[in-house]
């Protein structure tokens, strides 16, 4: 029987989401998607905030937004949804400086939610998250090209930062080190979670396409992209998927009427007992009242058609099963 692992776009639990959640049940943030999340064998998210009530806003460089969620509700919410892995390589893990990042690491560790992509040092940030899901050993690495001032080094906390350029020797060295560590765990499935590129961009640049393919050629089984706040197309390379951007899953952001950053999907990968991806299902979602919901029929139609348009240049076509879009990797 296949193991089903969910992947989401940005999960931002701070600001207005945090305020609303203080006055409603902890699992309300997952709206009508909660049951589907809980039915999965595993769940990987990009956590786009810190889990802390401490720290002061980053002022060393200009940062217009700062995201922080109260761990008293946010950690139980992650647990209720069955989150297994949090990717932390993004442009918000130092929004409230080192104290809040350290709180985030501690709270996730105490909850048994494995994390990767940020840490006390670069060494820690490059360590993979390793978890058993449905009898499979899954290793996840997380990297970002956002906010270089948040990059960890040998003595300072922060993110696993790289430049997205497969020809760059330092990029290949750092990404290669993360991959080597992940492969050293002998995983059945290897995931690369990338917070890459600017906001509100609808298509990946050539450098991202080249880097994503290079990762798959290096043994990665799925590229889990995020950062643009809007979903992008899906490409299949050597029988493995590149999710160039999974969009936003939950947040409080203003909605662009054309790009519809409130709409995306829950991406569910089916994996065989041998650790081979066999199918990808895309369940349309939409954000309303600072919570994620199953998309209504009009929103779902829009998202499915848009995903077909964005994926067509990669030669990717989908089948339909109810509300879901299906992409099969089997011959």
From TrEMBL:
<dbReference type="InterPro" id="IPR029052">
    <property type="entry name" value="Metallo-depent_PP-like"/>
</dbReference>
<dbReference type="InterPro" id="IPR019079">
    <property type="entry name" value="Capsule_synth_CapA"/>
</dbReference>
<comment type="similarity">
    <text>Belongs to the CapA family.</text>
</comment>
<feature type="domain" description="Capsule synthesis protein CapA">
    <location>
        <begin position="4"/>
        <end position="253"/>
    </location>
</feature>
<dbReference type="Pfam" id="PF09587">
    <property type="entry name" value="PGA_cap"/>
</dbReference>
<dbReference type="InterPro" id="IPR052169">
    <property type="entry name" value="CW_Biosynth-Accessory"/>
</dbReference>
<protein>
    <submittedName>
        <fullName>Capsule synthesis protein, CapA</fullName>
    </submittedName>
</protein>
